[in-house]
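Standup notes, structure subgroup. Blocker cleared on the 2-(butylsulfanyl)adenosine input:
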Amino acid sequence: MKGAAGKKAADALTRAEAERELERLAAEITRHDTLYHRKDAPEISDAEYDALRQRIDAIEARFPDLVRADSPSHKVGAKPAEEFAEVRHQRPMLSLQNAFSEDDVREFFERVRRFLAIPAEDPIEVVAEPKIDGLSASLRYESGVFVQGATRGDGETGEDVTRNLKTLEDVPETLKGRSAPEVLEVRGEVYMARKDFLALNERRKKREEPPFANPRNAAAGSVRQLDPSVTARRPLRFFAYSWGEVSDMQAKTQWDFLQKLKSWGFEVNPRAKLCEGVDDALEFYRSIGEARAKLDYDIDGVVYKVNRLDWQQRLGEVSRAPRWALAHKFPAERAQTVLNAITIQVGRTGTLTPVAELEPVTVGGVVVSRATLHNEDEIGRKDVRVGDTVVIQRAGDVIPQVVEAVKAKRPKNSKPFVFPDHCPECGSLAVRPEGEVARRCTGGLNCPAQAVERLRHFVSRAAFDIEGLGYKHIEAFFADGLLRGPVDIFRLKDRADALREREGWGEQSVANLLDAIETRRKIGLDRFMYALGIRQVGEATARLLAKHYLSLDAWRASMTEAQDAESQAYQDLTSIDGIGPSVANDILAFFAEDHNRDTLDALAQELDVQEFERPAATSPIAGKTVVFTGTLERMTRHEAKARAESLGAKVSGSVSSKTDYVVAGPGAGSKLKNAANLGVAVLTEEEWLALLDGGA
Ligand code: IVH
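Run returned:
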């Protein structure tokens, strides 16, 4: 609520008004701090928040004797995003591939076996341990002393929470014994035990503070406290399970490393077990499943890790997850509730998605009022009708789903749901191409839902990450014609007057927004590619593309050429590990459209799209193009390709003048001849491995 003083400029306030206004602002800022930090549910943009703080500063500057003891201006860290310094992880913090069934787990073991060509009779040992539902952290020790603690962040860059993590009893200040490596980064999970979580919420209730939804949120909120003394009062614990940079790796297996961690003074999950093979691992999963309810902490599955570290290294990673580890999730939690309505959402690519509007119900500790119904066929197959009692489920961070309708509870007069054949947003025809499950609006960018969703995606965290340009603003700017497409964002500076005239936008908040936009003109190639919102090009695929093409110009040129499916460029695109024909077609379809190419050109004018930086440019094969041919004897073809790519090389299927090396095994044919004709260096497998080792 704004009083009369709230509308007046700071220098027009009387002394009495200033006093009231400072009191009001202090309360308001405290409320927004709570919403942001404790509840992760901010109600205002960072720009608006900044404007509040600036108003306090201006009033306090005029009436210094009115500065309140509880004034927010005393608190450190004004701007949420800048509260913690960034920490670039020396080695990325990866995520895990998920498995939901025993079959998935058996497949994982088979994949490992095939990749490494392990004979069927040899066991694959894995370490199995509970998957803790907390947040991961990395602890850096130098000469045995804790020097830095960081959150995972986006896996590449986290937040510096050293002072907060220092307050944890499970985080040793100094390592035990003398054997620890000079540099040691220990990774693990920060979590809150259930009983501590319940007690904490009791205390919060007594103080009339909002309770945390679950132990995970409580742990995450506590680690990201600005004031370490607050963290210190929160009962946080830490299980160590992995590592980042290590100057001297003294273990040969995952299991040995866990023993080392214990000897250095870390808590390692006492239930971790070395398993002989897949049956043993699945047995572990079942027994943990049974023990789950009795454990003192929340877990959401079991993690299996290939025990031998030399095998882990050979297996490497794909799409930000190691090939040598797997998270076997517990089944989702379920509940029943009533389906009040089915609404249709239009996504940024025009897909019409049916959404179940539910009578709110608690599932696995979270209140759910909407769930996805996936698509038209799914509704038909399950025969879900408005008014039905439905079973819904939630698994981890996955969007809640409608599993089935409880037919016995169906109201008498219910009718099957008829899926609309027109877009509910723009009225255009919605069509369903043969063989596809999705019905799509044909309105393109004339459909406001698509345009707004695309813009929203464009500025989202993993894309341009423009602070202060939230969904509401995009919708409003779009409605007023200030924004039509992504390029307009970077031309907003020419419309500053129109912005200032908007309700709730002052000089300062406009300046803040324009500043935030300016800082984003420079952007990494992978983020840029992801921001374009091409179907099936998520963050991981964008990274694969960026890694492969290195620059925007190279990518654009290659995609133009690849429109011809017979071209070398097309082959090149589909040879990227992780990019199949379907993804390739979506990328090419994007480039086939004039308006998309125009948008790209216009964006290129406004932006500085950085060339992709390879993580390990020190590798002797970084940037080289390699062709494998013939039979390889020391590794599988798949492994050879993965390893080369992880060291920054491009693996191609055919020899051309751009090829740097042809690695030829026995039985090599025409490619070898081509190489000779073109004067391309030909290596044996041994020579190739020697080359890799020389620089690895
Ligand atoms: S291993 C490269 N082990 O699960 C190895 N992760 O879904 C990466 N997690 O980000 C992680 N318990 O935060 C590992 N015993 C465990 C874990 C565990 C929980 C979390 C971790 C990771 C997430 C991936």
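Discussed briefly. Residues 94-96, 129, 131-132, 136, 189, 241-242, 303, 322, 325, 327 surround 2-(butylsulfanyl)adenosine (CB under 6 Å).
Next: hand off to the docking folks.
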